Amino acid sequence: MKAPEKSISVTQAAVLCGVGRTTVGYWIRSRKLRANRVGRNYTVPVEELIFFLKKTNAPIPPELAEDQTSGPCFRSFQNCWQYHAGTEHGRQCSGCIVHKNRLDACFTARDGGGLGCPEATCNQCLYHQETYMARIQFIQQIELPAAIYRGLYFWGANRHWAALCGRSEPELIGLGIEHVFHSQSLEAVISDTKKRDLGDATVSRRFKVFLRSGDREKMAVRLGAYPLNEPEGTFLLLAEPDTEAP
């Protein structure tokens, strides 16, 4: 994921929305509209303005690129410590490994025990719900076991995938893939994952692996891995049982 490539000034946002500059300033100060501070001024990500207008049922100005308003609308990306800035939660961020290492996906620090976040679980965190969960919740509509992963971590999964692995859905948020893939398949999965991250088009989209499944030693499944535009750099995994070894 990366920061929005297109932003506009507060004055431009006011003109587009047909309101005064002070009104846009109030939206920003009250944290209703997310903006980025540049020196003494603020810039407003276009996708964040579209999200705000849709959320408040306000008309979308035609100048705001029609292709950005026809599909799903998400909040612009912001690191967790930026999201929580100025709040009670935010005062604890400086001591967290996520802040110290400038990690984009904060929940990937859970598995190593270094996450200092006061939230009980990621799925209860408003930041996670708005920034990540909103982007991957479509997998709940898939009847096959489905999961989202990036690099060496899972970002979430539906109930079918959780049942397949003998885990709960919240447990899978930020879980390292070594806890899901059996050791017999792990080396190959890591190798293919790194190749996908580098954009290697020769890596097969369908393959057979062993999963670690609850009390069972291993389970053979056929997986399909499909790249997603949003969240950027992630892959959708779809699983089907397979009776043959990979």
Lay out the secondary structure:
Layout: E1 7-9, H1 10-17, H2 21-29, E2 36-38, E3 41-45, H3 46-55, H4 80-83, H5 97-101, H6 126-136, E4 146-150, E5 153-157, H7 159-165, H8 183-197, E6 206-213, E7 216-227, E8 235-241
Antiparallel strand pairs: 1-3, 2-3, 4-5, 4-8, 6-7, 7-8
Summary tags:
Arc Repressor Mutant, subunit A; three-stranded antiparallel sheet; five-stranded antiparallel sheet; single chain; Beta-Lactamase; alpha+beta; 3 domains; 246 residues; elongated
Structure, explained:
It is a single chain. This protein is of the alpha+beta class and 246 residues long. It has 3 domains: 7-68, Arc Repressor Mutant, subunit A; 83-118, no CATH class; 137-241, 2-Layer Sandwich (Beta-Lactamase), CATH 3.30.450. 28% of the residues lie in helices and 20% in strands. It is built from 8 helices and 8 strands; from the N terminus they run βααββααααββααβββ. The protein has helices spanning 10-17, 21-29, 46-55, 80-83, 97-101, 126-136, 159-165, 183-197, and strands at 7-9, 36-38, 41-45, 146-150, 153-157, 206-213, 216-227, 235-241. Strands 5-4-8-7-6 form a 5-stranded antiparallel beta sheet, sandwiched between helices. The protein has a 3-stranded antiparallel beta sheet with strand order 1-3-2. A hairpin with a 2-residue loop joins strand 2 (36-38) and strand 3 (41-45). The chain is elongated, with a radius of gyration of 20 Å.
